[in-house]
Amino acid sequence: MTFKIIYDKRECIGAGECEKISPERWKVNNEGKSELKGSSINAQGVFELELPDEEYKKQKEVSEACPSGCIKIARDN
Amino acid sequence: MRQCTIHKVTEEGNDIRAVQIKVEEGLNFIPGQYIMISMREEPENFHCFSIVNYDSQGKIVTIAYKKIGHFTSMLFGKKEGTILNLKGPYGRFVLPDSQPDVALIAGGVGVTPIYCMLINAVKSNYKGRIYFFYSGRTTRDMPFFPALYQLRSERLKSVFYLTEEQKEGTLNRRMAADDVKEIIPDYRRCIYFICGPPPMMDALKEGFNKIGIPPDNVRIEIFK
Question: CB–CB of B143/B16 below 8 Å?
């Protein structure tokens, strides 16, 4: 089972909560925008990354902690 | 989210205000970080403000802003005692734990995170050398100019630029990227923190790249 992170970098305000919770996946760059390691950009200009279910709980926490709401989680239940 | 109260409001220049905010339970933050504020009329409409100053317990924190749009115009009308909504602190625009030599570069109201980082570094006997560059059109466009102009420390070197005013001890022009070669002995190893108008930050980033400063050594804070 997998889930997807959908991340709109344009809305990122560099809060850094994502890096604080999940530094192995997220890092705020020198311009104050988070980078999602391993992700790719789709046609709508949004970054996506498919991950195994074991990472769901932590990335859900990241999504909920993000103050700008630019990180979404999608899972087929 | 929690609530806080406007404690005191002071004028800091042309349409620029400093607001002391009382946070009952105290705020634990790192200089350079910001908070998000919303007002009761529009509780979901949060805006980011760098923390400029603070008391020893973090119960009174100061933000400063220029009145330029809808939100800041509304905030401009708020008086002492007004309750605000607060989130944070947030942000990674902070000095490295290893305390290397740093250049803190501010343009106009972009001084807000820089001021906090600078004052804290001076007070806490930061190990590295600190090079402070502050520019603006006139001193009325540069919050906290008097305090920064008089700030002295053994490990601090400051340079001030005024493009539309003459003042002793300042340069009557814009900051140029090449200036760091004259001021900072080992400028390629220094870490640069820049906050100011986007054209200024873009010009300095490009200029720093041209003189061989690694891009990884340059950090910018864009006001959101």
Answer: yes
Determine the 3-state secondary structure of B5 from DSSP: strand
| Cβ separation A17–B92 shorter than 8 A | no
**Calpha distance B17→B75 (Å, rounded):** 10
DSSP letter (8 states) at residue A66: -
Q: What is the pTM of this model?
A: 0.94
Kindly state the tokens that stand for B128. Answer: 């590295």
Tell me the count of A-B CB pairs closer than 8 A: 38
Q: What is the DSSP letter of B109?
A: G
H-helix or E-strand spanning residue A5: strand A2-7
Min CA distance, B87 vs chain A (Å)?
Answer: 8
Q: Is B103 left (phi over 0), alpha (psi -120 to 50) or beta?
A: beta
Contact between chains at A17 and B90 (C-beta distance less than 8 A): yes
Please state, in angstroms and rounded to a whole number, the distance separating the CA atoms of residues B79 and B64: 14
Question: H or E element: which one contains B208?
Answer: helix B198-210
Q: Do A13 and B90 touch (CB under 8 A)?
A: yes
Instruction: Please report, in tens digits, the pLDDT of each residue of chain B (224 residues total).
Output: 899 999 999 999 999 999 999 999 999 999 999 999 999 999 999 999 999 999 988 899 999 999 999 999 999 999 999 999 999 999 999 999 999 999 999 999 999 999 999 999 999 999 999 999 999 999 999 999 999 999 999 999 999 999 999 999 999 999 999 999 999 999 999 999 999 999 999 999 999 999 999 999 999 999 87
Angstrom distance (rounded) from CA B195 to CA B50: 11
Q: What ipTM was assigned to the predicted interfaces of this complex?
A: 0.90
